[in-house]
Amino acid sequence: MAIVGGGMVAKSHLLSIKDLADEITLTGVLTSSEKSGRAFARQAADICGYQVEAYESLDALCADGKVDWVIVLTPPNARLEIVQSLAAAGKSILMEKPVERDLAAATRIVEICEAAGVRLGIVFQHRVREASRALAALIKGGALGQLAIAEVIVPWWREQAYYDEPGRGTYERDGGGVLISQAIHSIDLMLSLTGRVFEVQAMAHTTMLHGMESEDYVTAGLKFESGAVGSLIASTASFPGEAESITLHFTKCVTHLQSGELKVKWRDGREELFGASATTGGGADPMAFTHDWHKDVIADFNRNSDEGGTPLVSGREALDVHALIDALITSSNSTCAAKVPYPEA
């Protein structure tokens, strides 16, 4: 396999590839410039323990018959041409979230891959945590009863220096702020557990704590297709930053996912604990999390590519989280602001 793009999360992918040396080989890498490509290839070689090529061009990568599939780590706005070329060359694609900057652009990416008959997987590593898998199994088994309320809180923090990086938090490059770049992981995980949301009422805002183009704080009410209701708070302005959480209230229990752990409190008094505590990158260091979750996603994609199966999260399935994010922003932009009518003193 090969990698296109060498951004912040690239090291997690390289460490994962090293751990999966018995299953996959990194043939080469491609970045936006020859200089950065050579540097990334050296880093990859140091971590993986063997020579890694720095491709001169996307055409050179596509022509490499040794490459079965490609990890794409570029910013969202740089993906269309890359996906078109890889799909035309018959290379399956595993892509870091988001698929693109909005639902329409993401749908185009998915349709290109479907038309070419290549697999498209999206990296939503929160789904592979032990606690997440345990909760998904409990829900599937029907033991928890009916879902009544879902509460998602992403109280993260990012320093201003994070948004001072060119393009970060802009609509042109990223497609938005906290929703599409950070909270998208928790929102995707929620949807995988709850099913689809059909109606939202939201407020998205840029606080005085950041100088940036897009939103760093969102609060919303949710109505689910199942009849459940819920709430979402997503922030990168919540100093010093805490782990995100998903709390689901069922008719027979309450489940709480946070920091890699699942706590189940049954209404008959029983309590259960699944998983193990882990950092999730909610504070000033966005990379303060284990690469093991990326490794599981990469291993799943590779094995499914060999066996002809569906990725853990396909491009088509990932459109659900894009649709919800678009609806949240649409709701915020279309709702008239109202002053609170406080009485005179």
Automatic annotation (TrEMBL):
Pfam families: GFO_IDH_MocA (PF01408), GFO_IDH_MocA_C3 (PF22725). Residues 2-121 form the Gfo/Idh/MocA-like oxidoreductase N-terminal domain. SUPFAM superfamilies: Glyceraldehyde-3-phosphate dehydrogenase-like, C-terminal domain (SSF55347), NAD(P)-binding Rossmann-fold domains (SSF51735). Transmembrane segments: none annotated. Residues 133-252 form the GFO/IDH/MocA-like oxidoreductase domain. It comes from the Bacteria. This is Gfo/Idh/MocA family oxidoreductase. It comes from Roseibium algae.
